Amino acid sequence: MKAAIYLGKEKIEIREMPMPQCGDNDVVVENLYSGICGTDVAVFLHGPGTGHRVDIGGEFGHETVSRVAEVGKNVTEFAIGERVYPYPLFAKDDTRRAGTIGGFSEYIRIPNAKRNRSLYAVDAAISDRLACLIEPFTVGCRAARRSAPKERETAVVFGCGTIGMASAVALKHFGLEKVMVCDYSEFRLSIAKKLGFEVCNMGKIDFITHAKECFGIAPSLKGETANADIWIDAAGAKSVFDSFMQTGKIESRFVSVAVNKALRSLDMLHLTYSQKSVIGSGGYRPEDVSTVMEIMKSGRWALETLITHEFQINELEAAIRTAGNVERALNVTIRFDATK
Known about the structure:
By secondary structure, the chain is α/β, with parallel strands linked by helices.
């Protein structure tokens, strides 16, 4: 099989590797599509320690949809040919491998495979191409769920990448009245607008002015502001949290899902009297997989439009570089059966 091997900063090699050996309790899956995560871009461009834990000399990639190719003699839960979503946290039976399950390899061995733990069935109503968005959508869905959304509330999402868009879609699925997506990329915002979201290019429009027009007026400790109940940060820029502290309305909630190690100062007195909440959201839970499957089966949004580019595994380096270009790409995928 072909497998992408990470060799350090800006170094990838596509190697011919032996097929994984299927143990008695294992399943071997054949990857159909795999998506490129922002952390894959980071670790490629900047080296180890800047994204998911990716070891030099190892396989990587984790956003994938697959087909069961082989089952061990003790395995009764899965059938050859069944489409499955490998749940990265448990796919390798090692939570440290969540970002490196082998999504950029043609085949993956799933040790001690268990249904609805390491592998989830993919409904026939979800296309192969769309199914490779399940993993980032579970991350965005978790962020939306962590915000404790209530019907007819309003929200603003900062960052128009796949996770930001997944958060926006999940918020609407949970019953929010209005959701605005903010970014600096006109290319990405145009896709969000076509999906029915209010958008704000923060490089061209004053955010608070536009948010007031969209959501109406609400009180904050510093005067009138936009009536946005929920702020989700899928961008990680310092200005997003600063803006929330300065202009977030009383009782608004801030959810951080962006990967960011920056230390921030926090005005606890302001937080106390404004009754705001600051919430972290990392990863996903099984309930998020179920919700994402519901969203994708519903057909309410043309979610495949988030996929702007498709490459083959031999073109992985070009695919990763394309994924890092926010002015011309949103979600970039690898299609494995293109040459078969």
